Amino acid sequence: MSLLGNKARQLSRWLHLWLGLTSGLIVFIVSITGCLYVFQTEIKDALEPWRFVEAQDRAFVPPSQLVDTALVYMPGKTPTGLTYEDETGAAAVGFYYTENDKLDFGVVFMNPYSGEFIRKQEAVLHGSFDFFQFIMKGHRHLWLPEAIGKRVVGIGALIYVVLLITGLIMWWPASWKKKYRERSLRINWKAGFKRLIFDLHSVSGFYILIFVLIIACTGLIWSFKWFENSVYYLASGGEIKAAHTHPHSDVSKAALAVSDSIPAIDRAWYLTLAQNPNPERIYMTPHLAEEDESIEILVFNKKGKFYHHDEYFYDRYTLEPLATEKFVDANAADKLDLMNYDIHTGAILGLPGKILAFIVSLISASLPVTGFLVWFNKRKAQRKLRYSLAGQQGKR
């Protein structure tokens, strides 16, 4: 039995054809770049052994010492981020800065146990070529100007969701008898080229549908605020997503700032470690540009995952805890929101999830190609038939 009536199937076929032809290149680029980016962490770990250190039975040096060392190698720059990895990872201080009217990024890697310099990476965004930065630019905005490209990618992802739905309607067997069921669920590898291409498009598209739909929807959350708010509204049972705000330090208490030799950023780090003695990663902003900025420290609790983290805020003058936002205390909608990146990349399921995301993205990239070939072969056959009929009429 058909999933929908004939008119709906005809409309689906028309939409699938023309939306597919107009968005095929976008879907191909976004899918293949996503596929290539899935294992960027594992590849970098293998190619950049200097990002690791030997575990030692002693504490890490405090943030201020790492910043002081990093500034020796990035003079005149302002540190914008500091990361501690686990016991075998190098610590890193990052610097965003403008040079020759271009935004650039540099990183200084150090041994977290001794504070010794290991390596500096500079001009990652401009100047030197970074393969994964290049891939990510293609994935996010097709190597176009970011404001334009992100919008194009978002519209392409929205069209892709429609293509997945219309594709399911077209795939649905006219009958669930064995003959029709097998044609819809199996690729006939012994068939001719045209039939094989059709099966690769239709059958493989069906098997990845639910997974690629999840990937597309998690991508749409970043592309459109209305989509993000709609998902949150549904997940929360009708609540509006609150804006994420940071608490502020009390400037009136600046005179009360602790004046001993231990910097406030170090004290906040020690306070956070007391509550989280074995974190997988810690991230903080070492430089506070505004007088009322608070010290923010993020603690990541699961290796290779971004969603499971806690945020701690401290008054920069008194070190009074201003707020603590823990993942375990978040409601279901907020947890889903935090999980969005890990769901999108497959990291939510660890290595098996990444392998699945890689395979799904690779097949997804093939769909515009096989879809175009199906259309081209059909168009070629129709043209050949028209010429044949015209020739027969001419002989009469």
TrEMBL record:
Key word Membrane present: yes
Spans traversing the lipid bilayer: 17-39, 152-175, 196-224, 355-376
Record bears the keyword Lipid biosynthesis: no
Any coiled-coil regions, as ranges: none
UniProt keyword terms in alphabetical order: Membrane, Transmembrane, Transmembrane helix
PROSITE patterns membership: PROKAR_LIPOPROTEIN
Protein name from the UniProt record: PepSY domain-containing protein
Organism annotation: Gaoshiqia sediminis
